[in-house]
Amino acid sequence: MEFRRKDLLGVADLEPEEIQLILDTAASFKEISTRPIKKVPTLRGKTVVTMFYEPSTRTRMSFEIAAKRLSADTLNLTVSASSAVKGETLADTAHNLEAMAPDVLVIRHYASGAPHYLARRLKCGVVNAGDGLHEHPTQALLDLLTVREAKGTLSGLKVAIVGDIAHSRVARSDIQAFTKMGSRVTVAGPATMLPPYLETLGAKVTTSLVEAVRDADVIMMLRLQLERMGQMFLSTLREYSQFFGLAPRHLNLAKDDVIIMHPGPLNRGVEISPEVADGPHSLILEQVANGVAVRMAVLYFLIGGEKG
Amino acid sequence: MSLLIKGGLVVDPSTHLEDPLDLLVEQGKIAALEPPGSIPEEGRRVIAAAGLVVAPGLIDMHVHLREPGEEYKETICTGTRAAVQGGFTAVACMPNTKPVNDTTAVTRLILDQAKVAGNARVYPVGAVSLGSKGEALSEYGDLKAAGVVALSDDGHPVSNSMLMRRALEYAKTFDLPVISHCEDLQLSADGVMHEGKVSLQLGLKGVPGAAEEVMVYRDLTLAALTGARLHIAHVSTAGSVAIIRLAKAMGLAVSAETAPHYFSLTDAAVLGYNTHAKVNPPLRTEMDVRSIKEALRDGTLDAVASDHAPHSSLEKELEFAAAAFGLIGLETSLGLTLKLVHEGTLNLIQAIERLSTGPARVLGVAGGTLEVGSPADITLIDLNREWTVDVGTFASKSRNCPFDGWILKGKAVMTIVGGKVVWEEEGRG
């Protein structure tokens, strides 16, 4: 199996074998981050540009650290949505960047499909670091890696994804990623946050947190994206946390070795109680560590090796 | 000069005629319809129509010509050129120009430009409300006197139900139909495509069919309340079809149209973030497509109208959510409708009816007939011609067409307006 793509746009496009390859490679890259000198020359002379049209701390840092550990040069461009509206089009911005000959462009954008739009127009590689409500493929890959490390396999696991599915690109990518790798995904949340036709992505759908977490091997809590929601998706945060917040009592319903994940940033006390977030089942920080390894692997496959 | 259209199959839904006849045009009017060979050729331009359908001129009752204000997208000249090239002898143009057609000055400008262009007839639609802002009624009496044939705030719904009631009543005063763009803006919110499987996959915000249907229902009840002439624009869902069918069965004086894209495409056309498939109301599902075809067949839908909505690359070569709604259709509408004939959904009379006689009846304008004494608006159609849609050959200024590259069967070859050949296919002679 080889990875022969110009871009990484979404989990939807990936074959299970490609996912496997990225995970295996990411696992082998993890060791680099434990060395006293955390750098290898693999991508020396390559340029990685990150272009973020939405605020982000961890994803952007994670890409930057990943690129630097592989010796690539990195450049960050933060574009506020308002100035983009006033100024040039996305295509013009990207063509201007391309004129400076980067090897790969990592983009986060508030518009679903923006990375696809760029990928069609640019010769350099494009990595989707989150587009609108659509996909966040590297997050799904790091989630897979985290679960695979903890469980030894991805096949046959019950994975519960709970919360604001409607506004979550992580949920869209995770549902497809876990399903492709043989896990059984159940999504749960209030019906206001469950878009119609979720079952067509391969997930089981329920409005009951209890049903979702029962016998679960993995519980993934999603952040309540209050900034994307406007009104009318829930009544009060108090009631939301009462019915859809993960608390210690829920863990008794799940498998004994259940792992708790969250893509961050946390709304502590809303979708997840501090006891659970910081408890022994939580792998939330492991996810962050694996994010660097997965992004190293992705950059390596897109611009490293003989292809570069 | 008089024209003799010879050897064609005359299809006239207004008289249920479908016979081989020769048709004589004199002084801009249809002068005679006689058995083949019985009208002498001498002194007349003879148009050989063997193998062709001779139809009453097609009427597209819902187009956007963009002039005044957005001439970089389309002008009245290029838009009507696209019309005649697509077989249409008349179009009704929506008032959402810049400025909005809510005053007689704009109406007169449109009619003057149409006259200068000399292509298709242009029937201006006036605004329901001043500036189409949904606040105050525009001057329906003056607008009608200036040449407006209907009223609409198309592009926007009339959200205020009381204003819609008053608009229907005031329009009734002047015997003008109100064409309603049915959309509950709270339900459609910031949706950019149909809410369904594909919107979920693409992470695009969806517009459920209900956003259209609740307003269709509202307007039908208001039509019943006021007794006014109501026409529902661009019907896109099975639910709307069902409510309109019911209203008609109850005897309500309501009419409705759909556009070719609603029976030719589904929301799957958006895959790949194709902005040419971004249109309002959005492309729906297979089930909706089936219902719309059935409604065209049984007459629940009176007209096929293209909702020709030209946009330039400035509005379309963007991220999907940022791109404008709308696609152009004047040059593909006939071919896509004839597809329904070839697949057996409609017979030929029905297809011509929805493209000509139906819209003439809804708007209350001349045309839609080949009866002796009527204006000689005639479209000659080669029913079996296969052709490939190529936006490069379009007369429209814009290129936002999701059908580029499609192979269609059936094409207009000559368009006659008021007895004058305004367009004929190259190579005819």
Summarize the structure.
With 308 residues, chain A is of the alpha/beta class. Chain A has 13 helices and 9 strands.
Distance between the termini of chain B: 16 Å
Main beta-sheet strand count, sense and barrel state of chain B: 8 strands, mixed
Give the overall average pLDDT of chain B: 97
Radius of gyration of chain A: 19 Å
Q: What is the CA-based Rg of chain B, rounded? A: 21 Å
- Got a strand count of chain B? 18
Main beta sheet of chain A: 5 strands, parallel
| Proportion of residues in β-strands of chain A | 5-15%
Structure characterization notes:
The complex is a heterodimer of chains A (308) and B (429). Chain A is α/β, with parallel strands linked by helices and 308 residues long. Chain A has helices at 16-29, 58-69, 81-86, 90-98, 114-121, 137-151, 169-180, 209-213, 226-229, 237-244, 248-251, 274-277, 284-303; strands at residues 47-52, 73-78, 104-109, 125-131, 158-162, 184-188, 204-206, 218-221, 259-261. Chain A is built from 13 helices and nine strands. In chain A, the strands form two sheets. Chain A has a five-stranded parallel beta sheet with strand order 7-6-5-8-9. In chain A, strands 2-1-3-4 form a four-stranded parallel beta sheet, sandwiched between helices. In chain A, helix 2 (58-69) packs across helix 13 (284-303) and helix 6 (137-151) crosses helix 13 (284-303). The model of chain A has no long low-confidence stretch (mean pLDDT 92). In chain B, strand 8 (121-126), helix 3 and strand 9 form a beta-alpha-beta unit. Chain B starts with a strand and ends in a 5-residue tail after the last strand. In chain B, strands 1, 2, 3, 4, 5, 16, 17 and 18 form an eight-stranded mixed beta sheet that branches. Chain B is of the alpha/beta class. Chain B has helices at residues 76-85, 104-117, 140-146, 161-173, 185-188, 197-202, 210-226, 238-249, 260-264, 286-298, 313-316, 333-342, 348-363; strands spanning 3-12, 17-26, 29-34, 45-48, 53-56, 58-63, 88-93, 121-126, 150-152, 178-180, 193-194, 206-207, 230-232, 254-258, 303-304, 378-388, 407-417, 420-424. Classes of the chains: A alpha/beta (308), B alpha/beta (429).
